[in-house]
Amino acid sequence: MGTEIERKFLVAGESWRENASGEPCRQGYLAVGPPVAVRVRIMGGQATLNVKKSALDMVRDEFEYVIPERDALDMLEGLCEGYVIEKVRYRTRYGGKTWEIDEFGGVNAGLVVAEIELGRTDEEFEKPPWLGKEVSSDPRYLNSSLSRHPYSFWR
Q1: Which of 23, 55, 62, 68 measures 20 to 30 Å from 47, CA to CA?
Q2: Is 29 a catalytic residue?
Q3: 2-153: what fold?
Q4: Quick one: which H or E segment has residue 73?
């Protein structure tokens, strides 16, 4: 079991792209709690099954297991609730930290969100100039929520 301590922000501007490298990602949800969300994902040539608490807690227990890609494809195509999330996950460094930036496609096109994983809940970090409003406590920005209520439906 791992523990995830994560903060999430909207992205304002394009300067993050200068040193970012990305890879496509498809993920869907087999179950969306409470109490847990169960996700299947294919990214970077690897398929995983992930179980984590489906809450807005900044600290969440997380379990992740590698599974055969064919199984993941079958789950994405036939077992997932809602919409399959399509995005490109970029990674970039700023202030000595790695930032993950998700640029969504499909029914969530137009949404760009940055996440940082921390070692402690009170850990300080330098905010990049392209960082917008923090949305860590807004349930709409959970990927599990975006699979049920996509960004394009908000308007």
Answers
A1: 55
A2: yes
A3: Hypothetical Protein Pfu-838710-001 (2.40.320)
A4: helix 69-78
